[in-house]
Amino acid sequence: MSEGLTHLDADGRARMVDVGAKSVTRRVAVATGRFESTPEVIALVRADGLPKADVLATARIAGIQGAKRTSELIPLCHPLPLSGVEIDFAFEDAAIAITATARTTGRTGVEMEALTAVSVAALTLHDMTKAVDPHSVITGIRLVSKTGGKSAPPVRPRTAAVLVASTRAASGERDDTTGPRIAEWFAERGWAVDAVTVVADADVALALESLVASAPAVIITTGGTGMSPTDRTPEATRAVLTRELPGVAEAIRARGLAATPTAALSRGLAGTAGNTVVVNLPGSSGGVKDGLAVLDGLLEHLVAQVHGGGDH
């Protein structure tokens, strides 16, 4: 029964796994959960109208502290030097969705830290609101993704994937034109495109994780980079990146600023997930046009450098 359970020895006794032989790599884990209450309570939290003030700020700090103390709470977890913990909240009519992203550079993963962060943040939300709703529910706590710790899979040369983050397009309320335009751009340059994947904003993290696992050379996303409460593409992207390319993201923003001041509001990222280049573009047709114009001059060289070619 103990076969495959790394925290049990040959005799079935609990043990701490020896990770000394593992490589030191950058590791990221993302976990989510839901705090469910009445619409009235959620509205009060959103408006900061509860007697216990700063509910979200308190829950965020509690989640971060929980992540930092995971090895004290879970007996066989290794103490980790966390390089960052982020707690994000998204409001729904009768719930608050909680997302925790934990990062470290070390010999073992940070999934337990991310899960603990979500759990403690949710418990704090309950504690802060129980005077007005003692029957709130914490549900759906799960690990969404983790990266690092294994050698990146070999990417498929000159293969690209396109991810469109648009709740309305995913539901069929409107047609998406940005994804096909990006696919066409790749095809004109001799690249094979796996597919144009259209997902709701809430599903972008899982979709991006799946695309990274399929190991195309490049993934371009469009949509979900602004300041709308549902825009989650930069958060999902940061969770899978092993190295960021801030210059590329800034060049895309600068190109857009030449035409419209609102380009400054884009939070899009660029970087590499293992050996896959990932670039966020805005959801507008103009933003996609500007982004592709920037990539036209550097994507081939960037991909070559990631794989050991190009100028150094």
* End-to-end distance: 52 Å
What kind of sheet is the major sheet? 6 strands, mixed
Spans of at least 5 consecutive residues with low confidence: none
- Helical fraction: 25-40%
Which series of helices and strands comes N to C? Answer: EHHHEEHEEHHEHEHEHEEHH
User: What's the Cα radius of gyration?
Assistant: 21 Å
**Widest β-sheet, arrangement of strands:** 6-5-7-10-9-8
Number of strands: 10
Write the layout of secondary structure elements.
Blueprint: E1 25-36, H1 39-46, H2 55-68, H3 70-73, E2 82-91, E3 95-106, H4 111-129, E4 137-147, E5 156-165, H5 167-170, H6 178-188, E6 192-199, H7 204-213, E7 216-222, H8 233-240, E8 243-244, H9 246-257, E9 270-273, E10 276-281, H10 285-296, H11 299-306
How would you characterize the overall build of this protein?
With 312 residues, the protein is α/β, with parallel strands linked by helices. It is built from 11 helices and 10 strands. The chain has helices spanning 39-46, 55-68, 70-73, 111-129, 167-170, 178-188, 204-213, 233-240, 246-257, 285-296, 299-306, and strands at residues 25-36, 82-91, 95-106, 137-147, 156-165, 192-199, 216-222, 243-244, 270-273, 276-281. It has a 6-stranded mixed sheet with strand order 6-5-7-10-9-8, sandwiched between helices. A hairpin with a 2-residue loop joins strand 9 (270-273) and strand 10 (276-281). The longest helix is centred in the middle third of the chain and has 19 residues, at 111-129. The chain starts with 24 loop residues before the first strand and ends in a 6-residue tail after the last helix. 42% of the residues are buried.
